[in-house]
Amino acid sequence: MDPELPGNTSAPTTINYDQYRFAGLPATYFNTAANDADGVTECILYGGMKEAICAQPDFPKAVPRALVPAHQIAPSVGAGLGMFATRAIRAHELIFAERPLLLMPAAFWPTQGRGFDRESMIAHSNEMLKCAIKRMTPANRAAYCALSNSHLRDGSPELFGILRTNGFSVGERLREVITQLPEGPMGMFTVIGKELSRINHSCSPNSHVDFDLCSLSLRVSAVRNIAEGEEITTMYCDLLDPCTTRRRTLSPYGFTCACEACQHRIDSDVRRRRIHASHHLWKDATFERWLRKPPQVDDQYKMQLLRLLRLIEEENLQLLQGYRNTRQKLAFVCAALGDKPNAIKYAKDVIGTRSPIRGVVPISAEKTLLNKAARSLIEPHLSKKVGARTHEMSRA
Question: Could you say which DSSP state residue 185 is in?
């Protein structure tokens, strides 16, 4: 453990990729009573990353908690253990959040020379991983080693196999704070959760796993309503790939997905191709072009967005970023057309996916926060098309 004192919160100007640093975050102390109540994540970071993380305002924020517990870990048919809902869960409600066991690069590149083979990279990564796990508390070390390992026959050492099986990619989230992190392999980081790494895959998942660096927490939220007793699932592959491609991607995990989409793969593949072909509809440029066009009584853009929304919901793909983007564009379109009630309705759903509000604060406070944020989101677009229509009529 690191006997560190707070105080140095100045973010570095550069990240040293030839230097790795082991650290427990938030800061850990020899006097364990002084440690953060939400727990400690064992980290392997590039030089300078720890300082950048600790320089965030209010770091570390408290890990958000659901007001009413909503899950349990239990056996899942054909999939070992899984996460299940212990009560009805609303769409966008926080199910659970935890401080991860581990945060580290997805793979390690030797500091001397770059021409090395895959076996050398795996061996080097496993040695670094051993050091990090040795630094964990006995309870966290046991929790890590108890996770599933689907890489028993491909040459992966046991600890590295567990990492490959259970890791969530968080490189993009880290780059939001540490902008110097590059794209590509050097910027790929992974986190391991004690409970969230038990979440199994579905090609039509009902939850979204996200990572928040300021609270150093791994979170799972519902993307649609989840019934009591239903298994909570997420994605391990590109959901818009055809079924045969998804199965190839999933094969290293040692299971064959039997979700509804895979059981009815012909019809499902057709719908998913249509969704992929319609991705231009939720782009900012498409909305801006529509906004500049003369207003029409028969508004095709809004109807196209609504059809796309129904198609995504029919496939139970509410996890897609495109689903959130489509609802956001519908909020903007309704606002521009002067339909404020529907604009706020769509905007509230968008806000709900961005931050853990539902299930974290009382319902009365939740409504106030969502309404305020929704009004702020649509405000720049209110009645823009109505104004254009009035201008066209006056010219006529």
Answer: G
Q: Which helix (H) or strand (E) holds 393?
A: helix 384-395
- pLDDT per position as a tens digit, 215-237: 999 999 999 999 999 999 999 99
User: With contact defined as beta carbons under 8 Å apart, do 323 and 350 qualify?
Assistant: no
Identify residue 52 by its one-letter amino acid code: A
Is the domain of 292 the same as that of 379? yes
Tell me the pLDDT tens digit for each residue of 335-393: 999 999 999 999 999 998 877 778 888 888 888 999 999 999 999 999 887 655 444 43
Sheet strands side by side (includes 16-25): 16-25, 41-47, 102-105, 189-192, 168-169
Burial of 266 (0-12, 13-18, 19+ CB in 10 A): exposed
- Final residue belonging to a domain, choices 236, 261, 291: 236
Prediction pTM value: 0.87
Domain hosting 171: range is 1-60+104-191
Q: Is the pLDDT at 3 greater than 50, yes or no?
A: no
How many other C-beta atoms can be found within 10 angstroms of the C-beta atom of residue 256?
Answer: 10
